[in-house]
């Protein structure tokens, strides 16, 4: 395995201390501005603890897990590819963000059934103007750090990209265009005469649907599970991540971090490429 450490807080003194803990003659190799790796390492809890204390991402990566070994990446949208939870920001337009955000948080922590929680939240938005959705898009929707770089790395390595979200097509389709993703699957808000009805059209994209979408596209492309990556932050991403060869928890809830292959808490999405690069 190789030890990958990264994050904007990393310093040479950190690297020196980690090197001492590893008791190795192998030297760190720099792979990005704030990312380094040590080859031929075994897991050391002392290294993991030190990195956590210093706000540095640390991962022991299998030597076989390299960018050119993967052919499909499936990603969540809200709080993963983008910095906001769209439904919370929509709710803010009508002054009910605290109520909706509380439900969102419980769903992401895995305390509520996602489909039920989504219906409850969308019902609270009844009567909202479609123009308010456009305001969220234009004023509040930003890509997370490293998103463009990560997708560029995928394109360079011929990795097919799929956005699959419990959020809404109004935003997902635009994020797909912004990043040049291959596919996007999400929920559709019912809008009649320019106003939200408080309903979601069709089958809700929940945890199982996310996993199913990964499997369907994987099989369509003729890939194995080992050739797939899934990236998410909430409990409704766990099934999708479990179906992938590598599951990345990106600035994720604790329940997600404990079940992911690797976790990034400080690096941007470009950190995924650093995990898989030598």
From TrEMBL:
Keywords: Amino-acid biosynthesis, Hydrolase, Magnesium, Metal-binding, Serine biosynthesis. Pfam families: Hydrolase (PF00702). One of its GO terms (molecular function) is magnesium ion binding. GO terms for biological process: L-serine biosynthetic process. Its cofactor is Mg(2+). Pathway: Amino-acid biosynthesis; L-serine biosynthesis; L-serine from 3-phospho-D-glycerate: step 3/3. It is an enzyme of class 3 (hydrolase). Its EC number is 3.1.3.3. Transmembrane segments: none annotated. The keyword Metal-binding applies. GO terms for cellular component: cytoplasm. PANTHER family: PHOSPHOSERINE PHOSPHATASE (PTHR43344:SF2). Belongs to the HAD-like hydrolase superfamily. SerB family. This is phosphoserine phosphatase. The gene is serB_5.
């Amino acid at each position: 395995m190789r030890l990958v450490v990264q994050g904007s807080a990393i310093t040479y003194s950190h690297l020196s201390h980690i090197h001492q803990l590893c008791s190795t003659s192998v030297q760190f190799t720099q792979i990005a501005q704030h990312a380094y790796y040590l080859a031929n390492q075994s897991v050391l809890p002392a290294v993991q603890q030190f990195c956590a204390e210093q706000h540095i991402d640390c991962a022991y990566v299998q030597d076989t897990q390299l960018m050119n070994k993967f052919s499909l990446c499936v990603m969540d949208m809200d709080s993963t590819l983008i910095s906001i939870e769209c439904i919370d920001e929509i709710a803010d337009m009508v002054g009910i963000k605290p109520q909706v955000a509380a439900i969102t948080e419980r769903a992401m922590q895995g305390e509520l059934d996602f489909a039920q929680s989504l219906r409850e939240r969308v019902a609270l938005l009844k009567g909202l103007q479609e123009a308010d959705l456009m305001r969220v898009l234009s004023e509040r929707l930003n890509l997370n750090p490293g998103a463009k770089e990560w997708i560029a790395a995928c394109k360079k390595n011929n990795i097919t990209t799929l956005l699959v979200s419990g959020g809404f097509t109004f935003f997902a389709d635009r994020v797909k265009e912004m990043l040049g993703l291959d596919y996007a699957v999400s929920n559709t808000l019912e809008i009649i005469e320019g106003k939200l009805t408080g309903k979601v059209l069709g089958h809700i994209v929940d945890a199982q649907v996310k996993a199913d979408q990964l499997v369907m596209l994987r099989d369509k492309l003729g890939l194995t599970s080992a050739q797939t990556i899934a990236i998410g932050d909430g409990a409704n991403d766990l099934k999708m991540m479990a179906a992938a060869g590598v599951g990345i928890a990106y600035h994720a809830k604790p329940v997600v971090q404990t079940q992911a292959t690797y976790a990034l808490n400080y690096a941007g999405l470009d950190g995924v490429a650093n995990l898989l690069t030598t």
